[in-house]
Amino acid sequence: MNEQQIDLVQRAWDQLSYNREQFTHDIYSALFRLDPSLHTMFSLPPERLAQNLARTLNTVLTSLHDLDSIRFIIVSLGAQHYRYGVKPEHFAVLKAALTEVLQQHLGKRLTPELAEAWSQAYDLIAGLMLEGLAQAAKQQAS
Ligand code: HEM
């Protein structure tokens, strides 16, 4: 991701700040609609899920300029997801849910450049989480 793309994503995140928990709540709704079987993995009430995700997205998105400083946290979060039963292919479903909800919340403000910047931000974060997921799977197998 280049600096301009990071700025684009951070500005959009600011624009969503009026209702971040609704935004993350809608991501879960879209996720469960796209793949209803994922529902059984979750135990927390929807408000808690939305709060947790909004908080984490805020930390991650405001640190995009210096992702190395929180790299370890994201990789560990990925490893934690192994215990939830998350599989690598689920990250694509979440990406589809995120894309849909960005469209819903930003409307015309979601330009192709902004959509591309979000896509790269997601891939970056998901890539680190997948590293953690793979490490946890390897540890389990050894
Ligand atoms: C960039 C991608 C993701 C981020 C940033 C993320 C973030 C989080 C966070 C912050 C938590 C709460 C952890 C805690 O409070 O201890 C969590 C829990 C969880 N995540 Fe993710 N996650 C991501 C991808 C996924 C994917 C792809 C799935 C599977 C569809 C998933 C399923 C879960 C489940 C099942 C929980 C446990 C919730 C519960 O106990 O009810 N996550 N995630």
UniProtKB/TrEMBL annotation:
<dbReference type="InterPro" id="IPR000971">
    <property type="entry name" value="Globin"/>
</dbReference>
<keyword id="KW-0813">Transport</keyword>
<feature type="domain" description="Globin">
    <location>
        <begin position="1"/>
        <end position="134"/>
    </location>
</feature>
<dbReference type="InterPro" id="IPR009050">
    <property type="entry name" value="Globin-like_sf"/>
</dbReference>
<keyword id="KW-0561">Oxygen transport</keyword>
<keyword id="KW-0349">Heme</keyword>
<keyword id="KW-0479">Metal-binding</keyword>
<comment type="similarity">
    <text>Belongs to the globin family.</text>
</comment>
<keyword id="KW-0408">Iron</keyword>
<dbReference type="Pfam" id="PF00042">
    <property type="entry name" value="Globin"/>
</dbReference>
<dbReference type="InterPro" id="IPR012292">
    <property type="entry name" value="Globin/Proto"/>
</dbReference>
<dbReference type="InterPro" id="IPR002336">
    <property type="entry name" value="Erythrocruorin"/>
</dbReference>
<protein>
    <submittedName>
        <fullName>Globin domain-containing protein</fullName>
    </submittedName>
</protein>
